[in-house]
Amino acid sequence: MPSPAAQPVDRSFLVAAASSDGCVDLWNPLSGRPVGEPLTGHDGPVLAVAFTADGRLLASGGNDGTVRLWDPVAACSVGVALTGHRDAVEAVAFSPDGRALASGSQDGTLRLWDPATGRPIGTPLRHRAKVRAVAVSADGRLLASGAADGRVRLWRLPTRRRMGRPLAAHRGSVLGVALSGDGRLLATAGYDGRVLLGEVAARRPVWRLTASHEDVVWALAFSPDGSVLASGSADWRVGLWDTATGAAIPGPPEGGTTVRAVAFSADGRLLAIAARNGWIKLWDMVSGRYVGDPLYRPSQHPGRYSYSLWGIAVTGAVGAASLPPPGPIYTEPGPHPIPAPDPEPPRAAG
User: Fold this and answer.
1) In terms of C-beta density within 10 A (0-12 exposed, 13-18 middle, 19 or more buried), how is residue 1 classed?
2) Which helix (H) or strand (E) holds 46?
3) pTM (2 d.p.)
4) Could you report the per-residue pLDDT of 115-159, keeping only the tens digit for each?
5) d(Cα 83, Cα 80) in Å, to the nearest integer?
6) Tens digits of per-residue pLDDT, 251-271?
7) pLDDT by residue (tens digit) across 283-324?
């Protein structure tokens, strides 16, 4: 098997990981190596990450109530922390043009920010419970948010006006929301182990799929073309669903630990899967197998927080010819037979 160093280095394809030890990790999946040192700045666990569509900016939300911006290529911070939330920020999402950033917090608010200035856009949008999930459609028309009271709200992003009444979707917290690129499909998941998929019509979703996991569902992601919905659960499984028929699609085997986050590459070829124990694995949707070695940082950042993953984000795509070969799949955290790779040096800022 070729060594990671022999693989092409393509910084347009990156994976970002939010860690409970207060770091944001950047990975080059083609080389299997981290890019630069872990990004630090949050005071406490990092709970969410999101890239702009062009991959030039990365946002993170933390348990400290702040939102931070990063240059993912140079692996450095951008500006100062965005402050205003009064509790942990569990979700972040960019508009497709990158000119607005949405953040959802346990303080019950959904805030919009101008990433260029770091200033808030308008007044906060309010839930009656902790906001735990946020999504923006790729066409920039819709914003969805889910809260701890089991309700989902839909908003028209350009006007910041709510669409209809809140949707009573789940028993217990809504932990995942996703919108298809055209804004036609809405998916929700929650503490009750259910996954709901529906069409956004007549200002209210018309549900056409109700699927179940055996435990809490933490994460959802649509493929870029909206044809596949992925879900990640505490039952150790990744669910894949055909959005046209609602049928289950064969997917990754059980991973031996909670699946905390899922994210597709820009071409839909690869699905990145983040496990609570710190692993990130890449599933090839075409061949139906894992590719490359698991991405894993064996040591936590010095401090008082443990190391586990809370969220991931992916930017860019990779051609089939550049895919790393299949590597061993581990179901437990390190130490493991493959030495921890040295970081790749980030590019100079600017």
Assistant:
1) exposed
2) strand 46-51
3) 0.90
4) 999 999 999 999 999 999 999 998 888 999 999 999 999 999 989
5) 9
6) 998 888 899 999 999 999 999
7) 999 999 998 888 988 777 777 677 889 999 999 987 666 777
pLDDT number for residue 314: 96
Count the helices and strands in the chain (H runs, E runs): 0, 30
Half-sphere exposure of 280 (CA within 13 A, CB side): 32
Comparing C-alpha atoms, which of 138, 100, 117, 137 is closest to residue 125?
100
Q: Hunting for tokens 């100062």 — which residue is that?
A: 80
Q: How far apart are CA 1 and CA 54, in angstroms?
A: 32
CA–CA gap between residue 72 and residue 66 (Å, rounded): 18
CA quadruple 132, 255, 314, 141: dihedral sign? negative
Question: Would you say 177 and 200 are in contact if contact means Cβ atoms under 8 Å apart?
Answer: no
Q: Which two tokens stand for residue 36?
A: 């630069």
| Tokens found for residue 258 | 């909670």
d(CA 186, CA 47): 22
CA angle 268, 260, 218 (to 5 degrees): 90
